[in-house]
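Hi all, a correction to my earlier message: I attached the wrong file for LVIVD repeat-containing protein. Here's the right sequence:
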Amino acid sequence: MRGRLRTVLVTAAVAALALVAPVPASATVPPASATVPGPPPVGPGVDEIVSSDDVTQVANVPKQEPFTGEGSYGTDIAFSGDLAYVGNYDGFVVYDISEPAAPQVVSQVLCPGSQNDVSVSGDLLFLSTDSRWSDDTCSAVPQNQGLLPYWEGIKVFDVSDPANPAYVTSVATACGSHTHTLVPDTAGESVYLYVSSYAPAPELLGCLPPHDRISIVEVPLADPAAAAVVAEPVLFPDGGNPGPGSDTTTGCHDITVYPAKDLAAGACMGDGVLMDISDREDPQVIERVRDDTHFAFWHSATFNDDGSKVVFTDELGGGSAATCTAAVGPFRGADGIYDVVDGQLEFRSYYKIPRLQTEQENCVAHNGSLIPVPGRDVMVQAWYQGGVSVWDFTDSANPVEIGFWERGPLSGTELTLGGSWSAYWYNGHVFSSDIRKGLDVLAVDDAAIAGAGDVTFDVFNPQTQPVYGR
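and the right structure:
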């Protein structure tokens, strides 16, 4: 679930969070302002739902066969019109969300391949496979011998008939596709997929070190069967962060692009980067930061609407650990908020949900998106079994939670993987893909998000940020 190098040093003792000049790569970011968890929770109990007064669950659609197995984890979501496409380790599900309080399953495609993260463009759906298989079909079997031929990468489906998606083609990519990010070309003739992958090893035929790059797949819209890798830009010619404070950089975990501003933010294991993507096939790293004290694994990124801020997430524990505890504290497994000033990333603060979770709940910062609130920076975010948090980072140095929703632990005695993998705002509601519980739909009724319901999109891929305007 798992240019220049500059490390920003922030002094916690200074209330104003005064920034100092760039320092050597060995320097780290000590504690800064954050929302500090309160006393240990009394509840909720196993599977009990609790929330703030301003967040209400309006629907839940449990997982259905063939996606009810122990390893049938719900993953990422993409949206198009009245449809939500939800990834699953065993394939993907198409939901009709025209009535958010009553979503309906339109179709389910059985096509195993972790994580099966999804994106959509027109009549096309793209699926990431980051595990080794005997071939590129949906009936392939696992191929665990890394020095034997195997396949992993991107699959392309035609979803012009959402009730009957059709497999179009596949593209193998180095080290597979842990996640991918859809990037429209400037002419509107193709889409590019920035493929993030990592963890090379000498015993992996298709993932040999060094792997300091991403793969770029071009998909011609007039002939999607001709999709192919067109570039493999090296983002870390110096090898990236060697660790051990943060994870060793061997590629990227996730990239969020802001096409209207020709920007991308990459969360790349041990490094956070800002990229110029004006040349879609040749992205250039223009800024790079590290936080070897508090960030274990740079996981994902979100811009604010005017592109003046980036929220990076730290997936401490790989998504399977209990890190929302008093022992871990408020600065690790959290969000890091950075202002973009003259093209540089300047650290401002951390944000972590202000509720301690039990040792039986995997909980850490995970996937989220902006809520389109005019004039403010507001985000909804998944925290696995920490639930869904709605929070405001308009004041970068002082983020504050607006509301929350969560289920209690899956077990009262042992840590069991579960919770919200992805939580995104789409056309008036929050849609959450729960690892085990299916699709949840939430309504947020709070003056802090006034105006958000007036902003609608025809298509929404959360890692491809649209402009909603200010």
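Sorry for the mix-up. Residues 41 and 180 are 37 Å apart (CA to CA).
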